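Subject: Sanity check before I submit

Could someone independently write out the structure tokens for this chain? I want to compare against mine line by line before I put it in a report. The sequence has 237 residues.
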Amino acid sequence: MDAHRAAPCAGGPTYPYNPTLRTDFTDFGGRIYAWPSRGGVIILDSAEAIDFEFLGLNPLDPPLERLDNNQAAEDAFCQQLLLLGAKWWDSEARYSIVSAVEAGNPDNLRVNSAFYIDQQPPPTMREKRFIKVGWPSSSEGVWVAEFDTTWAGVDEEDNLVPYDEEIGRLKLARTMDERCDMLRDRFKATFYRDLKDYKGYGYFNDWDSREIGEVGPLLQPAETREIWTKAYYNVSQ
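---
Independent answer below. Compare away.
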């Protein structure tokens, strides 16, 4: 567990969820978080320097936590993050569970000392989807590459995510325009002049209509902690 994500609780367990989190980093790159007023959490995995720049964040020194409690500003940031292909998770707990499945952990693994993976719904197509987005500097349209993955079962054998070598090449793009060119030429991305025309599995157009989560309700951070606490004590007895 990342130390900065844990908030000690006097006389009790250490909570694994931090609703003030903005960015963190793993061996696979950066993650960017946003916290919508409607509930759940929006997360961009494997964020690259140009993603940070798109959001107005310094990629060399991004904020680790939200800088204020202005929820209107946070909701605006949420909408910007969705434009990069970020996923809108039911809760941070759900994200941890699906991430554990992606990492190949055993079905009976207890995530963050509370949730058993085999007691949770399996990842959905939207949750396991690989999506990469490029916004041309001309401000004309958007390129979207979208693939199925293999780590939670294959649903589209003819549309699997490219080999790691190709993903590695994509990470070398220095600008959004370079990413757009690579998505078009090497990833068979689709161009949308208006993102409202997008009909895939991404969350781009969910902001105005999303009321429930993917496998349950959209939980507020306090609700996630309450569920985690109950689960923690159940498995600790």
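---
OP: Matches mine. For the report I'm noting this point. The first helix runs from residue 49 to 54.
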